[in-house]
Amino acid sequence: MPEGPSIVILRELIENLHLEGAEIIEVGGNTKLDKDRLLHQKVIAFKSWGKHFLICFSDFALRVHFMLFGTYRINEEKESTPRISLVFKNDVLNFYTCSLKFIEGDINEVYDWESDVLSNDWNESKALKKLREKEDVLVCDILLDQNVFAGVGNIIKNEVLYRIGVHPLCTVGSLSMPKVKELIKEARNYSFDFLRWKKEYTLKKHWLAYSKKVCPKNHPIIKEQLGKTNRRTFYCPICQSYEKA
């Protein structure tokens, strides 16, 4: 599943095409959405919020969510049929194996940009307030809560928890206040590291815990499906103890 940084990269790639104000002259794909609604619409902006890619028009937006296996192609095609294909005068955007939805009205009234860890509007104080209201939630689940940390996915979750030395089965309420603040800071910090490494094609080289057999201190890494989210979790029981929280 693409995490927030990957969606930011997609947004930047498409922004470089300078399609703002451009008209959609043809719509294809096997989506069941009303494709005719998009025909001859002019794009106002491209935005990203967490794991959502948004193509904005005057009074609605098309939300693209890549789920587990979604992909895209810009000015090229895969052999499979796209979920939706948007044709402009000089460019084509193809989206595959994704979920599509129309978002009605003003996009700014629908999305809370302050909860996006990669947004310039990210609000650390608001994240802290939300965490105080979720003290019984496991940290391995809270990091994947898109209402708190929009854009954080499973890789970021694992790496943040290793960085700050917190066991994934700690609850939010069991953490000291300095450790809660560190968790919030690292969720954003690592997301920007992820973005930079992804652009450099070096992301995997920097993993400390995710998909590893041993941690950087040569301790064995445990792999389990943890939390209500039941996502793959890699952790070092020595470096990430309950006591350190």
Automatic annotation (TrEMBL):
<dbReference type="InterPro" id="IPR012319">
    <property type="entry name" value="FPG_cat"/>
</dbReference>
<dbReference type="Pfam" id="PF01149">
    <property type="entry name" value="Fapy_DNA_glyco"/>
</dbReference>
<keyword id="KW-0456">Lyase</keyword>
<dbReference type="InterPro" id="IPR015886">
    <property type="entry name" value="H2TH_FPG"/>
</dbReference>
<dbReference type="GO" id="GO:0004519">
    <property type="term" value="F:endonuclease activity"/>
</dbReference>
<keyword id="KW-0378">Hydrolase</keyword>
<feature type="domain" description="Formamidopyrimidine-DNA glycosylase catalytic">
    <location>
        <begin position="2"/>
        <end position="96"/>
    </location>
</feature>
<keyword id="KW-0255">Endonuclease</keyword>
<keyword id="KW-0234">DNA repair</keyword>
<keyword id="KW-0326">Glycosidase</keyword>
<keyword id="KW-0238">DNA-binding</keyword>
<dbReference type="InterPro" id="IPR010979">
    <property type="entry name" value="Ribosomal_uS13-like_H2TH"/>
</dbReference>
<dbReference type="Pfam" id="PF06831">
    <property type="entry name" value="H2TH"/>
</dbReference>
<dbReference type="InterPro" id="IPR035937">
    <property type="entry name" value="FPG_N"/>
</dbReference>
<protein>
    <submittedName>
        <fullName>Endonuclease</fullName>
    </submittedName>
</protein>
<keyword id="KW-0511">Multifunctional enzyme</keyword>
<keyword id="KW-0540">Nuclease</keyword>
<comment type="similarity">
    <text>Belongs to the FPG family.</text>
</comment>
<keyword id="KW-0227">DNA damage</keyword>
